[in-house]
Amino acid sequence: MELREAIESVFDNDIYRAVISNPTSKDSEYKKIVIEDKDSVYQVAKYTDKQVFHDNVNKNQIADRCLEIVEGNYKRVNAFSKDSEYIILISKKGKVSYKVNKTSLIAPIKATKEHNRKKNYIFSEGMNIPPLVDMGIFTKEGKVVSSMYDKFKQINRFIEIIDDEIIKLNTKHLNIIDFGCGKSYLTFLVYYYLREIKDIDVNMIGLDLKADVIDKCNRSAKAYKYDGLRFELGDINGYEAPFDVDMVLTLHACDTATDYALYNAIKWGAKLIFSVPCCQHELNSQLDTDSFAILSRYGLIKERFAALATDAIRGNLLEYMGYKTNLMEFIDMSHTPKNILIRAIKRGTTKKSHKETAISEVEALVREFNFSPTLYRLLIENDRSEDNA
């Protein structure tokens, strides 16, 4: 049995708890990982020797997330439903064994919403975080405004995604560019998290095209006494960073602005990229196919397919350029359909076969639908033109 098949078989059942253990390496960062049913999501808790880190995963994505965690990293999974235990064992050679034991255990009562509300967020009630007060999420007393609780959770989710990678990076200094920063609410919060919570020396620039926005953000940074944060007026396309860039943020940069931001990040060799794309019109206007005309027949389907294809292409191009890339759900679909976050982490090395697969998949999609994606042109077509010059 393949590992994916075994994991999917496990989560076809009503699993209330799963434990991933027995790391393949004694140097593994997380000694065990516990997955628990929390009503609408599964909560993933990753345990180091001294700390635990949490994130939430949609139920329809938990099998993929579990496979991502286990494959090559752990040798045992124990999962529990109300009447069975499911056991997956992986040998040193990668052979997978799978068995089910019937039990008399009764699943524990699921956590209440109030319990979930009190989980250990990175930003928690009682902390003095001026940007959250100015955003109307915290009261002046540091309490979450009831009507803003979903936004509060969304912000914490974003910071948790960054935190997972910052822990691995183990650095005391970061140079960061935030492209298309806008009003910069998340920019201020990322700076606060890195500087005040992680005690990292941060040099951060927010870039935007609106002069009034830049002026207001600089005044706010000064008021907050965020000395390592400044804002500049400028275009993402062709921007020259004044330092070696470690991290690039691009949050809701409109349409192809995301592509230029990703291109710059790749060109600079940024170690970390976090991108939440927005307003993806480019491929929607280009989509032209005879074999799959059904995808262009209905406007809504065409729009969503083009947006998903855009991010799939971006993900593969990042893989081709040497990044380990995940496309993650950032917020629940009930809030907005623009809910994908691209997380890309610079690899040490990338297998040639992996790069070839990544680019061949992009080029097959481009040929079939007559796409001409901006990031593909910037990274691939331009480089080939220079090689042939």
Protein model, in words:
- The structure is a single chain.
- Helix 1 packs across helix 2 and helix 8 packs across helix 13.
- Helix content is 39%, strand content 25%.
- The strands form 2 sheets. Strands 4-3-2-1-5-6-7 form a 7-stranded antiparallel β-sheet. The protein has a 7-stranded mixed β-sheet with strand order 10-9-8-11-12-14-13, sandwiched between helices.
- 31% of the residues are buried.
- The chain is built from 13 helices and 14 strands.
- The N and C termini lie far apart (51 Å).
- About 5% of the residues have low confidence.
- The protein is an alpha/beta fold and 389 residues long.
- A hairpin with an 8-residue loop joins strand 1 and strand 2.
- It folds into 2 domains: 100 residues, no CATH class; 273 residues, 3-Layer(aba) Sandwich (Rossmann fold).
